[in-house]
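Final report, Chapter 2: Outcomes

The project's central promise was a pipeline that accepts a single protein chain and returns its three-dimensional structure in a standardized token representation, suitable for archiving and comparison. That pipeline is now operational. To close this chapter, we reproduce one record exactly as it appears in the project archive, with the input sequence first and the structure output second.
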Amino acid sequence: MNELILKAEERARTAFSRVDRAALLCQERVLNAFWKHRISARHFAPTEGYGYDDVGRDALDEVFADALNAESALVRPQIANGTHAIFLGLSGVLEPQDTILSLTGTPYDTLESAVGLNGDMPNALSRFGIRFHAIPLVNDTIDYAEAERALKDDPSIRMAYLQRSRGYAWRAALSIAQIKEAVEHVKAIRPDVIVFVDNCYGEFTEETEPTGVGADLIAGSLIKNCGGGIAPTGGYIAGRADLIEAVSYRQTVPGCGKEIGSYAASYRPFYQGLFMAPHTVAQCLKSSILFSAIFEELGYRTLPAVNDHRSDIIQSVMFETKEEMIAFMQAVQAAAPIDSYVVPEPWDMPGYTDPVIMAAGTFVQGATTELSADGPIRAPFTAYMQGALTYEHALIAADKVINALIASH
């Protein structure tokens, strides 16, 4: 094995131990949820038609709720991605003339169109009189003074919004401790305000979830952390029972909510994916830590650094030129089990303002717990890497990446 990789592994030992500890506690919580709800093979059975009395669907909601420290959950294969889950959560509880106060600045690119910050898309929240007020982070921390002014001065604020991960921004993910502080700050001023956390990429990276420290709602994708590399599609919203009921009326129809909605395929991948999620996330975190150590040895800027606290699975790496960034992406693709022969190039991806390059040779399209990387082609040239499903895959991929970067010089 490359000497650089061996050196990086040695530097990462302490961080690996922290990851293992969190994974054990999360795995225990997930198992307790399975035991509590007496999950058996009958819960995997598909259903048809209206989906009345679908025990597999209903039990899946209950297991997810407990696994995510929430009162209730809405887990559906029909939710297309994380942005869809977030949009359902927002549109399900907000009404015309309500204001969303984002404490973490503007959201990532695809959500900007959904809330109405970018363009004038049909059915964007802004078209229904729902406003989005973003308070920029100051030195990568929440501006509590400005948040307090807004909460006191604007009675239309009904929701405080937190984006746990960083999207395409050079900042650390919000830790559970920081989310707890934000919840307590908001509730001390306005107990009525709903605290919503975009939980994408963050599930099972720490010992509890935002809903375990007072957040009212969280949302995310099943082809990311919670699906454990097994779920083929879907998303979830979890939190307070009354809010989940309201969201279910948006997801199906008012008056029916969670009581309808069949699924003609097996629910097994969603149960098994949740069971595998703590371990899979640990593999992702160890892979990210390894790459952080390697890139630091090579002289690149990384975020998080090897021994930094981690609250999502993403590893950011900053390159000097777009050519280096493209070479990195192509090496990641070449190391993939699927479509390794494909050479990724930047393209105008829907929902993004700059060309984006993606390396994603994954079994499930867009599954970021599998080894993948992406980023917009704009200065500073930053790649956002996620995965891999196994640490051994990350070791093999790292060797390819090192060789590609050396060749690019």
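Archive annotation: Residues 268-297 form the longest helix (30 residues).
This record, like all others produced under the grant, will remain available to the consortium after the project formally closes.
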